[in-house]
Please model this.
Amino acid sequence: MSNPSDLAHPDRDQIALPEVLFALSDPDRLAVARQLADGPLDMASCHATDPNLPKSTKSHLMKVLREAGVIRNEPNGRRRRLTLRRDDLDARFPGLLDAVLRDPDRLAE
Amino acid sequence: MSNPSDLAHPDRDQIALPEVLFALSDPDRLAVARQLADGPLDMASCHATDPNLPKSTKSHLMKVLREAGVIRNEPNGRRRRLTLRRDDLDARFPGLLDAVLRDPDRLAE
DNA sequence: CGGTCGGTTCGAAAATGCTCGAACGTTTGG
DNA sequence: CCAAACGTTCGAGCATTTTCGAACCGACCG
Model:
């Protein structure tokens, strides 16, 4: 059908910088974005967050990222496929993702 | 005196990405950072925010930016000199500031 | 079918953040 | 010295977020 997913996603030009920054300002959400930088992942396989985090909490986390336009969340069988919206973010805010996904403190020692 | 400012500022390697992103995720605070990109400014001359914003609110705004390490706030006579910590931020998160300070929707049409 | 797996939605409670007036320094000028 | 200009801090109320269990739902398997 016309709808690639049952969840609402902003389209590219609706993505707003403050919301993106807010979404990424949480360590857990940032970790998810970083993990997705290597390619799409099913939510069940996304171990970026605490494994004993309640599902509802994890789902809410993804909601914030999705509504900000950072990730895409589409049904995939009985799972959810998560994708970093790199093309859209790069087009809208060039350089932002590269800067943010770069490892934070890895080289500091 | 030994102290260049009476307010606490994190030093460069204390600056954390989530806090920076959070500080910049508010439109008012983002506007302040953008205005300071052109050079230091006295707080009284900083018209990036609503002019009839109460002083305490404006002060709190600056506090968030300062504690995140985004700006420096040092006494200057009976005023306050605000400075964007571009060197520190560029060193710590290369490309971030450039991406964030770029005009958001200017070219979108 | 009936059950399980993966995940969303809904409330409600706890935590965090924002706003703003009041009170308080400091610096400067008369 | 006294007062005004500029800002910070404090506290309280309000708003937004976060957290998590419970209920739900579609996809899949037996």
Summary: The CA atoms of residues 10 and 54 of chain B lie 26 Å apart. Chain B touches chain A at residues 13, 16-19, 21-22, 24-27, 30, 93-96, 98-100, 102, 104, 108 (CB under 8 Å).
